[in-house]
Structure formats: C-alpha cells, structure tokens
Amino acid sequence: MLYEDECSLSNTATVSYGWSKKGEQPQIPCKQRKRERQTVFGSYNYDTGQITVSFADKGNSHTFKKHLKKILATYKGVSKIIVVLDNVAYHHAKKINAWIERHPVLELFFLPPYSPDLNAVERAWWYMRKKITHNRYLKTLKERKAAFWKMFSHFLKPNIELKTVCEINY
Asked: What is the DSSP letter of 134?
C-alpha cells in the first residue's frame, strides 16, 4: 500500500515559528525575485518506509500519470499496488481513469475530502518543510531542490527514520 500526495517547493522563505517580541513578526531577509515553484509527487510505502519521488513543473494529469509509471517501474512484479490519495481534480481525470483501467495492478483508493491526517505521506512533507524550508533562506529553487535531495536521498530505500515520521497512531 502506497500513500501518494503532492507538495510544492518554491524559492520563497517561510516563517513557521521562533521567538520574537510580542506583536512583532520575525522577518527572513531576502531579495524580491521571480517566484519559482516545482511540484513534488511522493508515494510512501507504509510497510517499508520507502518513498518514490518525482518532480514536475506543474501538478496535472500528465505529470501525475508519469509518477504512476514510476511507481509501476519501482514495484515491477508486484501483483497489486493500492495507492491511497486525496481528491485533487487531476487524480479523477478521464485520462487517468482510462490509463488505470489498462494497468489493473494499480488501484486508486480515494480518501474522504479534507482528511490529510489519514495520508501518511503528508507527514513526510511536514518533516521536509520543517527541515529545509521553514525559517531558512535559500537563494534559488535549485538550492532548495538540492537541500530536498540531500535530505530525501536516503529515504528512497526502505528507511526506519521516515517510517517513524510517517507512522499513523490512532
């Protein structure tokens, strides 16, 4: 079973927490520049702690299908892959439904609306933001992607650290 979701990486700084005087908003000094963004698709294997990641300039049915192809290649030879995911519009696209029908090894299981707490990979995105985007200034999107890969490269194989971060406790 895989938990799939998307997040975005951008070259903008975010303030998430920190000490400051009452009534003052901490600022991260950075030059104003053209905003850049990339979509990151991630599919987290709850059993092993492994994550499959794809980058795209934009999240849409075309780039989502590319990610599904990467999942098939990663889990080649597996008889059934259940992908748990949210209800973003392009997950329901006719193009995706037709493609899934031709690849019966994949089964999409849609979560109820507004339930990110049921999607384990959401915790991976939270962890990533905490470690590489919140309260940190990186000059370019390229630097942010490099920080992402530095952190996530060891999660591409079965991993106890990511398994601990993504654990669902109910």
From this structure: B
| Residue environment code for 138-154, b if the CB has 16+ CB neighbours within 10 A, otherwise e | beebeebbebbeeebee
Superfamily of domain 2-10+35-143+150-158: Ribonuclease H-like superfamily/Ribonuclease H (3.30.420.10)
Are 84 and 5 in contact by the 8 Å Cβ rule? The answer is no
What would the mean pLDDT of 62-85 be, rounded to a whole number?
Answer: 97
Tokens at residue 70, please? 């990467």
pTM metric for this prediction: 0.84
Judge contact between 168 and 118, C-beta under 8 A.
yes
**pLDDT at res. 2:** 98
For 11, the token pair is 């070259």
Can you read off the two tokens belonging to residue 161? 């650290």
Q: End-to-end alpha-carbon separation of the chain, Å?
A: 18
